[in-house]
Amino acid sequence: MHACVSCEGFPLTIQIASGKEHDSQHFIKIMESIQVKTERRPRTRPLEVLADSAYDNVAIRRYLRSRAIKSNIPNNTRNTKRRKRGRPTRFDEETYHYRGTIERFFAWLKMGFRKLASRYERLNVVFKGLLDIACFLLCWKKL
User: Fold this and answer.
1) Which pTM does this prediction carry?
2) At residue 84, does pLDDT exceed 70?
3) Residue 138 · residue 109 · CB < 8 Å
4) CA distance 62 to 60
5) 3 state SS for the chain
6) Given pLDDT bands bounded at 50, 70 and 90, which one contains residue 65?
7) Mean pLDDT, residues 132-143 taken together
8) For the range 2-9, what are the long-range contacts, defined as Cβ-Cβ under 8 Å and sequence gap of 24 or more?
9) pLDDT > 90 fraction of the chain, expressed in percent and rounded
10) pLDDT tens digit string along 106-125?
11) CA atoms lying within 13 Å on the CB side of residue 59
């Protein structure tokens, strides 16, 4: 499961992929599928993205910069073998603590809906349907 969650803990988008691929390979697809309904037209890009050090990638940072989205991603220690040139990357520790909302979101999904944690369904369509119902119930409880 790959998810993008707001700072309040509401899911913005959720996608399912195989477990063989790294999470950072699905980052751009998740960011492009964000649509928050507003009074005018849907909002398709957040102001800032908080991600862990697994997403410390040149392609991801370049994508966020091209869409004028602030990236708050810490430097990965595995990438410090070679000295980075150019402008230093942005990292704000004060706002980074909001990243715990995604961890809480996955904890709520896996503790409240045990069927999602073990994934008994074979078909992705059925699993995605159960995931959408669980997200709806989580949002309903918060409101």
Assistant:
1) 0.81
2) no
3) yes
4) 5
5) CEEEECCCCCEEEEECCCCCCCHHHHHHHHHHCCCECCCCCCECCCCEEECCHHHCCHHHHHHHHHCCCEEECCCCHHHHCCCCCCCCCCCCHHHHHHHHHHHHHHHHHHHHCHHHHHCCCCCHHHHHHHHHHHHHHHHHHHC
6) very high
7) 88
8) 2/26, 2/30, 3/30, 3/102, 3/105, 3/106, 4/30, 4/31, 4/34, 5/101, 5/102, 5/105, 6/101, 7/98, 7/101, 8/101, 8/142, 9/101, 9/104, 9/105, 9/108, 9/138, 9/142
9) 27
10) 999 888 888 888 888 888 89
11) 7
**Which amino acid is present at 45?**
R
Q: How far is CA 51 from the centre of its chain?
A: 7
Query: Structure tokens of 47?
Result: 């102001």
